[in-house]
Structures are given as C-alpha cells and as structure tokens.
Amino acid sequence: MALAIRKLTNNLGAEIDGIDLTGPLDNAIVAELRSALDDYSVLVFREQDFKNQTQIAFSTQFGPLENMLYKREGDGNQPISNITNVDRHTDEIYPTGHSRLTANTGNELWHTDSSFKPVPALCSMLSGREVPPIGADTQFATCRAAYEALLEAEQLELEGLVAEHNYAWSRSQVPGYVPPAETLAQVPPVRHALVRTNPGNGRKNFYTGAHASHIIGWPVEKGRKFLKELVARAAQPEFVYTHKWRQYDFVIWDNRCVLHRATAYESEKYRRVMRRTTVAGTGPTIDESVTLSGVA
Ligand code: OGA
Ligand code: MN
C-alpha cells in the first residue's frame, strides 16, 4: 500500500493521511513510514487518538524507546514523558512561577532531543492530547537542507569536527532554571560528530543545537560562536516548518537532522498536555561517520 504523502514545505515536512496509527499495523507500512521519515524529516498525522499504551506500542515498532532522563514530580523512568503545564496529581495548571513552567521554557531553545546522551535519539513522537487555542506552535528546522546550502568550502570546514554536547551548558541558558544536581550527575558531557550522514539515503547534515557546547580542539568561545551560527543558518525561514497543533495531532521528527523548538503561549491560562515517546539511536555518532566513510 502506498501512503498518501503531501509535502508541507520545499525542504522538510510531510502530512500523511488515511492511516490510523493507534491500532495494529503491517510491517510493510511501518517500513514505509520509516523511509518517509528519512525523506521528509518531519511527519504529521491528524486525528490520532492515542493513549499512553497505544503510543508506546506504535513507537516501539520504530525501535527501542528511551526512558525519561530524570524524575519529575514522580513521573520519571518511563518510556513516555509529559510535556505539559498541567499537574497530573491535581489536574490543575501549575501555579505561577512553578519550577516546572520555568523548566518547560527550555524547550524554546532550538535543540535536538537527547543530544546530551552518548547515543542520541533517532526520532521523537509527540501526541497533542490537549492543545491551547492560540500559541504553542512547534517549529522544526532542517539541518540537512541548511547543510546542502553551504558553500563547498564551508562544508569541508565542518568535516571531521567533533562537538561537545552538555546538558549543564544548555540548561545554563534557560533563565531562572536550576536543574537538580541528581539529574546533572546522570549526564556528563559527551562528544558527537558535527557532520552526520543518513544511512538510508546518504544525505548529510550538521548536528548542533542548544546542548552543543563547543568544538573539541578549538577555543571554547570560538566553537560556541560557530555552533550558534550553524543554528542560525538552519533557522532561516526557508528551512523551517511551523506546526500549529490541533488536538489529536501526532508528529514524528528525525532528531538526527532537524532542530526543533517550542514557542510561547499563555501557560497560566491554557492547558497544554502533550506526550512524547523517543526512539533511541542505534550507536555513537562518531563511529557512525567513521563506519560510513570507511576510514579508521
Ligand atoms: C519535545 C519538545 C516542543 C513543544 O517534546 O521534545 O521540544 O512544542 N517539544 O512542546
Ligand atoms: Mn525537544
């Protein structure tokens, strides 16, 4: 069966209609979805009435899931995370100034999920359970089309570089947020290749974002500036898709090659309840590039 795929922009994103992901799916369909993710980087589905169990069951068909990094209000160590301003114990919006609301604003930095882990995520899957009537869009920026738009000399400059990704660094950029020491202890800095190659289609991209701190072997400030400049390249309008959520939307994005960020909304007025599953990556990014280019 060929899926009904409609491109959302020239450079990334596709909407796929006429499929219900909440029930059993043939392996052939899952393979088509995986290949569509390789091609389009962001997949949008409407009217997917997921519950946690059905979302986990669907997501697992893409590979093993990551567990949440840390315990937040007692909901840690599960393969599904709550991206929300609603306290699930009281079913009320968190009170003004609550640390969870401050922590949520960290998602407004361009980032790629779990790049602070030694094996970063393959893709994330976000289900819109309750969405505000205005604001709270999610934006996606393709680091593949942005890489392809670089001059050849600029692409060569990136080749072989390694960046340090560090959760403590990225959280230090979130005004007013102090992560628990227990969390920081779980995530020492890691290193990733700056240029990644999609093993399915061979297309390259740069790999940066809020967790990327600096370039190994360069003065720290020079590397920071360089990594930020790459983010700015990807964040140009022609490389961005802005998703306006409807209830029951389900969006899958390829963390290997797109950045994403949340946008602001009136979080003290409107409820927002999202659930995210995250498919684990298959190996370290540096080995990945070594294997693909065939050099030791
Ligand atoms: C995430 C994320 C953005 C949003 O779930 O990883 O960054 O708009 N979400 O909620
Ligand atoms: Mn995220």
Keywords:
296 residues; alpha+beta; Double-stranded beta-helix; seven-stranded mixed beta sheet; three-stranded antiparallel beta sheet; 17 strands; disordered C terminus; binds N-oxalylglycine; binds manganese (II) ion
User: From the alpha-carbon coordinates, what is the Rg to the nearest angstrom?
Assistant: 19 Å
What gross morphology would you assign?
globular
Mean pLDDT: 93
CATH level-two architecture: 4-Layer Sandwich
How many discrete domains? 1
Protein described:
The protein has one domain (4-280): Clavaminate synthase-like (Double-stranded beta-helix), CATH 3.60.130.10. The chain has helices spanning 27-40, 52-60, 99-104, 143-148, 152-158, 167-171, 181-186, 220-234, 285-293; strands at residues 4-7, 14-17, 42-45, 81-84, 86-87, 92-93, 123-130, 138-142, 162-165, 190-193, 195-197, 204-206, 212-215, 240-243, 250-254, 258-262, 273-279. It is of the alpha+beta class. The longest helix is centred in the C-terminal third of the chain and has 15 residues, at 220-234. A 7-stranded mixed β-sheet has the order 1-2-3-15-7-17-4, with helices on one face. The structure holds N-oxalylglycine (OGA) and manganese (II) ion. Residues 107, 111, 113, 260 line the site of manganese (II) ion (MN).
Q: What's the arrangement of secondary structure elements?
A:
Blueprint lengths: L3 E4 L6 E4 L9 H14 L1 E4 L6 H9 L20 E4 L1 E2 L4 E2 L5 H6 L18 E8 L7 E5 H6 L3 H7 L3 E4 L1 H5 L9 H6 L3 E4 L1 E3 L6 E3 L5 E4 L4 H15 L5 E4 L6 E5 L3 E5 L10 E7 L5 H9 L3
Parallel strand pairs: 2-3
Antiparallel strand pairs: 1-2, 3-15, 4-17, 5-6, 7-15, 7-17, 8-14, 8-16, 9-10, 9-13, 11-12
The site of N-oxalylglycine has 10 residues, from strand 7, strand 16 and strand 17.
